[in-house]
Each structure stands twice: as C-alpha cells, then as structure tokens.
Write a structure and sequence with these properties.
nine-stranded mixed β-sheet, 471 residues, Rossmann fold, four-stranded antiparallel β-sheet
Length: 471
Amino acid sequence: MNARTEAAFAAVDADIERHPPTFPPLDEWREVAPPMSPGAQVVLTCGSDLRPEPIRWLWPLWLALGKLHILAGAPGQGKTTLALTMAATVTIGGRWPDKSACEAGNILIWSGEDDAADTLLPRLLAAGAEPARCHFIDGLRTESGEVVPFDPARDLQGLLQEIERIGGIRLLVIDPVVSAVTGDSHKNTEVRRALQPLVNLAAACDCAVLGITHFAKGGQGTDPAQRVVGSVAFTAVARVVLVAAKVKDEQGEDARILARGKSNIGPDNGGFAYHLEQCEPLPDIQASRIAWGKAVEGSARDLLTDPNEEQDGEAQDVAGFLRSLLADGPMTAKAIFKDADGAGYSRDQIKRASIKLGIEKRKTGMDGGWQWALSSAEESTKGVKGASFENTHSSHSSALPSGEGGAKVAEDCTFPETATFATFGGKPPPSGEERTKGARFENALPSHSSHPSALPSEEADTSALRPREVL
C-alpha cells in the first residue's frame, strides 16, 4: 500500500471517529427493511458441516474451474487471440506458458464481434486446436424455428442445457463480457446483478468462464485492473483479472505482456511476454496466433507502466539514486537491487531508471553475474575483466500447445527462426564473419506435436521483457 492510499484510509477512519454511524433500533429497521417473498427463508450453513475444498485450476493460478475471469486490454493487443490460444491449449491437453500441463476438454465460444468461420476457427487452428472440441454459439432457435441472435444477458438458461448436452466443457469465452449486462454497465449494482447468472453458470458447469473487455481511455500509470471499462464491479465480481498491454522493454523496443492484474484466489503478480505472429494454418487461410515469451516478475502496474509515464519527480529520484550507486564504479545487479530495496525502491523502478540513464549491463565470465556501469564514466568500466555484453537473444517457441489432435493442421504455419549465441569464452562476442563462425545456433522450431513455451531461465536481472529475433 502506497503513502497516498494509506493517507486516504486514515482520512476515512478519522471521519468515522468524528461522525460515528448511527443505526435505528431493530424494531424500527424491520419496518423499513424491504419485504421478502412470501414463504421465503434465509438458508444458513454451519462451518462444521462444510468440508474445505481446494481451488481446482484449469491453468494453475491463472484460470480456475467454476470461476469467472476477466481479460482486459487496449484495442490491438490481441485479447481475443490470447483467449483463443488458451482455448486451443485446452482442446489438446497442451502446455501452458509456464509449462504446466492442461487436462484436455471441450471449449465453448460466444463472440459478438468476430465470425466463427473466417476468424475464430482459423485462429484456433493456428494455435494447434482440435476442431472437434471447439464449439461456437451461433444463436437461439425460437419455438417457431427461427434462429435469432444469442443474448448472454438473457439466454444463459438455454446455454446451460447445451453445455450439459455436450459435456466436458472446460472453458467458456464471452467476447465482449459487457454484453452480459442488460442495464447500465457503469453502475455497480446493475453490473453485479447482471454478472451473477454468469458466475452461477461457471459454478454449475464447473468450467472456467473468461470474459473479454477493453481498457477505458486514459488511466496510464494506474492499477491496470482499475482501467477496465465500465463499473468497478466487472473486476470485483471476477475472481481473476488478466490484463494485456504493449510496453517498452529494457532496450526501448515494443513488447507485449499478459499479467495478473488482480486475483482473489491466488497471487496477483507476474506475467508472460508474448507477441503476435501471422501464419497460414490451411491453404489460403491467414490467421494470427500467440508466440509466448519468457516469464516476467512484478506487479501488473509495474510491468505495464511505460518508463516515460512514470511521474517525473519519482523517476528522477530513482535515477539519482542509481547514478550515485554507480558513481564509484561498476556494481553487480544483485548488490544494486539489495541496496535499492533498503532505500525503498522496487526492482522495476531501478530497471526503468537504468533505461533512462543508459546503463551498460555486462556479464562477467561464463558463470559470473551481471555488472552494471554508467555508460558516460570511462573510469567506471575499468577492471571488469572478461565481460561480455548482455545477450538479449533467446529462442522463441511457437504458441502451439503440445498435443497430437489438431496440431497437424497447423504444421504448415511459418515459424520465425531465431538463434542463441553462446558465450565467447568470457569475451565480448565478435562481429561480422567471426561472430557467425563462433556462434551456436539453436533452431526454435519444435516438432508439430510438442510446442513448449519459450521461457529461458535467467538471473534476477531480467534483461528484456521479450526475446529479440536475430535477423
């Protein structure tokens, strides 16, 4: 909790002490309380009659069975493609970006924005999905036989019947989730009331429900979960809120991040880098898919905040702190982060300050740690023997989850070829022809039946949010 939030809570507490709330006597309250339905009775359960149950996960700590989730982001960040990539993983029992296994199951998708034949199914195939496990909500058939558009705000009872008929539905995608709200999507009470049937559906069908929505305009630098368009009830009712955004990595290049913006049932930090790529899952069929990058640490606010959007005063303080640390010479990243923590600065703040200052990051020897130095101070770089420039090249993998069914249709997709340069004996990597001769290339294209996520391990100093392609 930051100082501003603490001050706000303190002000509320002080106001309550000055003006304590008053409550009417119980008899008076009964007279003004809204009446209940005739014959209705409140049902209570004693804790001793309950058996504690663990949360059951579809994707451990990210998607829970029987719960409502929200995936939010600005337009153009690939939110639908992200959801479809997750759905594809479910259909083949593949691997999630953290390499955890997924139990195979059926998926169900309703989209008020994209066509199933020319957009949704091609993207699923591009991600390696098994089409026999993919189901799309086309509409609602009336008593007269006419098919009318499906309305998630009123037709969930009929949807429940179809889910029970199909069986094995593990993931339901609603795009956009605001369509489930009949009233004003900016009013807390109306949104909560409208989302409750969706929450009940998730519990009744024992499937994860993922609703897609947008970020509201503005709000950069604030908590990403608070930027979700409409009422705060969207994020309050959902048990997990995932956020996607484009940011600048430590090299100043564009990178996309999927992060946990909020979770009531698990950790609410961490994320994965990803990027969008085009492929041809079938002849003459073009589709986008997700290529997962490495895992990244930090809160969603830190991960999705552009360094240029940080408040000037705070950014200058952090930059000044880092500059003073390195004024007498290079330091290890581990020592810098330790000193920064003692001074009250987060690791992400220090990383952003390093971008502003143009800090040089070098690796000392093959098994050594990372050294940081001021680029403008020649004296600070002396004495660092056997250092090689930080390697930001690591293998990409395709977004296709592992599995057999459905993966064959995607084997014609074009994969980017990347390479990883081995360490050159503790020396800076050579350039030109010598660099090519001394390099060890690793083909990033896996077999079509197994597509693990590219999550290279690294020291605490995360050098980039997204691997860079070697051209």
